[in-house]
Amino acid sequence: MRFWHVRADRGGVHFEGALADGMRACLHSRIAMRVLLERGRFPAKGEQALYDGVRALGWDEHSSPKHTLSVSATCRSSQLTHSQFIALKTKDAIVDSIRDLHGSRPDVDPRDPDVSVVVRLVKDEATVYLDLAGEALHKRGYRVATVDAVMKENLAAAVLRIGGWDATTDLIDPVCGAGTVAIEAAMIACRVAPGLRRRFGFERWPGFDAAQSTAWESLLEAANAAVLTECPVKILATDVSPAAVDATAQNLASAGVAGAVTVQRRDARSYREEDGPAWVVADPPYGGRLAAQPLQLAGFFRQWGEALRTMHGSTVLLISGNPLVQRNLGLTPEMEVELYNGDIECRLLRYRIA
Length: 354
Ligand SMILES: C[S@@+](CC[C@H](N)C(=O)[O-])C[C@H]1O[C@@H](n2cnc3c(N)ncnc32)[C@H](O)[C@@H]1O
Prior knowledge:
Elements: E1 4-9, E2 12-16, H1 19-28, E3 36-43, H2 47-56, E4 69-76, H3 83-102, E5 115-122, E6 125-131, H4 153-163, E7 171-173, H5 180-189, H6 210-226, E8 235-239, H7 242-255, E9 261-265, E10 279-282, H8 288-291, H9 294-309, E11 315-320, H10 323-329, E12 335-341, E13 344-352
Parallel strand pairs: 4-5, 7-8, 7-10, 8-9, 10-11
Antiparallel strand pairs: 1-2, 3-6, 5-6, 11-13, 12-13
Helix pairs in contact: 1-6, 2-3, 4-5, 9-10
């Protein structure tokens, strides 16, 4: 995205830029969960230092009695150890400063706030951010139907990115669930910005004025103009469950990429040589009822592995949290990366079928 001073650490990726760059990150990042604007950083050994430091940042441009507020906090290796207390003190400092200026204070709305503030306290140093995204960025706004064990949209995009699919080869998800992988792939291939179909937190900020609104409109216009009318690759999404096929079709339509993906009811074990070569990208079943029956699960993966091995010239990319998958497919991964699907530790595995 051509940002300045990009730096990554365990907490995320940092960059410098104008507010419009933050808007651009919200609109175009397929993998980020949130985009945070740093308001300030200060030593906060104890509650008074935290309160004073937050007040000193000045909130007139960023909060008002007419705009609801929420504050969330995390802390590590600090004197203050309760994140809820840190959030409460931060909220007090903001609402007190607004009340002193305007005579009334903003209401707190933890569910759907206009302004969302994030505090991180690490080794007694507080960093205060405004959350540009509002609702987390994985919520693209297209998921209108769901099934069990769906993956987050940004995880599906990360699987495609880390796995190396470059949107120039055909793609199949043979266990498509609610269609997340196929939809993300279609959006990448058709150059649909992931944030085109949702609203963002910054649009509700008190300081979102005519100039910012114009900047945002032109970002949206450019993103809309970049969308391809025809998908350059074939994408196929199949699942044995009629409910999953139906959910995928609904979500594809809602994402505006129904024309880019073929959806069929089909058993994953029925794939054969003539279905390839393609990238087979899948988040196979490994939990629920099947997990309670390891023999059945092992049998499924043995048969699926046999089917995949007939697809000469294909690449298979799987994310799985169950070692039974790897043990029974009968394939040797050429790439293995540790990833988390929510709390579940998973492996991203890539296989080449000769
Ligand atoms: C973990 S879910 C996939 C979720 C999907 N990645 C998403 O985010 O929407 C696994 C899917 O495998 C499907 N499945 C189970 N056995 C199957 C089989 N034999 N053939 C095809 N699909 C199967 C289930 O119906 C379920 O939808």
